[in-house]
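Researcher: Batch entry, complex prediction.
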Amino acid sequence: MPLVASLLVLGLFAWLIVNFLKGPAYFTNIAFIGLTNGAVYALVALGYTLVYGILELINFAHGDVFMLGGLLSATMIDAVFGVTTKSSTGFLILAIVCTMGVAMLACGVLNATIERVAYRPLRGAPRLAPLITAIGMSFILEDVAIGWKGPGYTALPNVLPKGSVFSVGGVTYTWEKLIVIMITAPVLFALVYLVQSTRQGKAMRATAQDRDAAAMMGINVNRTISFTFLIAGGLAGAGGLVYALYFGQLRYDSGFQLGLIAFTAAVLGGIGNLPGAVLGALIIGFIQAFNEGLQWHSPGSDWTESIVFSILILILVFRPEGLLGERTPEGG
Amino acid sequence: MRQSIVRGWWSALGAVGLTEPRWRALPPGRRRAIKTATWLAILLVLIALFGVWKIAALAIAAVVALLVVPAWNRIPGGKFVLPVAVLGIFICYPWYVGWMPQLPIFGPFPQLSTVVVMLIFSMMALGLNFVVGYAGLLDLGYVAFYAMGAYMAGWFASNQFANQHLDLGAVGLFQGWSGYHITIWLLLPMAGVATAVIGILIGLPTLRLRGDYLAIVTLGFGEIMPQIARNGDNLFGTGFNLTNGTGGITPIDGPGFGNWAQTHLHLPANYLNAQNFDSLYLWTAIGLVAITVFCSMRLRDSRLGRAWIAIREDETAAAAMGIPLMRTKTWAYATGAFFGGVAGAYYASYKSGAFPDDFFFNISVFILCMVILGGMGNIWGVIFGACFLAYLDREGLSNVGAWFNNHFHTNLNVPLYEFGIYGVIIVIVMLFRPEGLIPSQRRAAELHEGVHDEPLYEAETAGA
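Model: Structure tokens for the complex:
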């Protein structure tokens, strides 16, 4: 089995190298797209990983919280602030910052509410019960979006500047991609700070390790779990904003697909592991971009989901603890 | 919460003189009679007030009362009365559906074509019940098996492979046909076996994963399968047309017994050409569901079925008792897949096509919702859940929506919110009645006691 896995990885690298040699500049441009996709996935994947780390629950509704965040952001930027392509840079920044605050708060509260209403009563039930409930919540949220925006796509004018930051020998890096990173990176650093260096973060880590022991040490476990859902929802809100800005359109089912991809990223990196989620998200982002963009023997966008899910299956079969996760006795 | 409702209920009844001890003291036959009469009276009044009253409603009430009230189990052979009567009611449906009254809110009784789909989904739900209900493995990609069965019918009973030429008892072939044509009667078990093999292939590497990981892997397969179906008209750029892409494979042969059987035995030669097309499909579907129910019951009580239930309740303890985990789980998977494949092939033959758009993740959840709503592990509950939800999907929701819009002067497109409604059903059932509407006793006990230890920090609230 490990031999098969190694051969698969070797084949992947050979394919990448040949593609790189055929057009280095083109390859780099595609890689930039992958980096940007990966940044968006990272925001969503972290939400999955946070919740899984603390509750061992795959929060299926997370992708839909992200989607509602995206719709809210699109509405805010388009209808409330009335940003257009001609708006000044200062106003654009103001609008993005305000929208981000509102979207993060709204999604965080929504996510915490879902936990309170749908998951908390099932704490003592068999593990599959909250999982099934989460699927139900996911469908409910999708219909909330249908009721709000209708089944069609909600489009956003392309407000991000398209100019290039630098352009060297055919390699161009555009502002919109940089802005995505500029929004994502501070959020990620804030999260790392929160989890590693604050009292609340310590409580989260303790609860994730052993809920009963944490309760005995005087940690309010239910509040900590609510807080984790709040944070995860906030990340999803930020992700929704970035997605709406960068891709320009989304609809009720955008979140589900992206949620599954982001979940794959979280599993790839080692679920429950924060740096792992970011790493996995970047890898998945690159794989998607290369698959859709490269020209030499690439399966093309028709097969993106199949490839992502094949990776998911292969990872779960060969290395269920993920790339950075620790091997646990129950992990397989 | 539930206890307070029950308490309120009894105090309301106590006000009219019927306290709980007095009710419990009545003989069971009389209790059944009172209960049935009350429900039927409510139903008849509702139909008379809000539906379209027909005298047939009284006949239905009489039949229901006759089946439910007497203690049939007491007389010899009596345990067959209820199943045979239900079977008879289903078989005779085409003849009396025209006389049925209109129900309040739900409108007319389902059409024949809807009943066929209801039965096909019952079969799929029973198949999923092997995996989810008996073995306790969450399968979120059941649609992959349905798709596999449908495409088996597409490959082996249509003109899909134009440069092949094989006829194995198929009926209704046109001049100049090509491709494989195997009679549906042989194709149904073939599709089942092929799907079971796929189930084993999926299961072998993945079934050692823990519950929620397994759910995700099955979900992955459930997403990959329809994508292969959608993109399979030019597999990997070789130009090989496996699935005919988004157009799907159509038409697919119908079942039938051929001309000889028609002239000598009065069996229909070809369902697709028959006058009573839907009735024929209905009767065949009843037969298939009956076989599935029989297999479900026999397997549940067999050594294998008891092993499934043991694994569901406590995997470690089951392994310690010498149950081979992998093999037992794989069998659950393969059995579930078998019935999914048969149902898929039959559905493809009924629709005369296999279309990739039928195989989205939504359908997996739809079938899962049937199992959960009806009651995981209980055959009759699962059939009820499947029939009810499939009916809602095909007719019920638009009828209810029309009624709602008429009465509240709104303009909601209720079928648009179909899956949200299923989501609400799933959440409410999981929160308040995780064992489903018609629970299996064993599963209910498990879900209420919980298989995990009570968490310490909730000990004070859990007892309330």
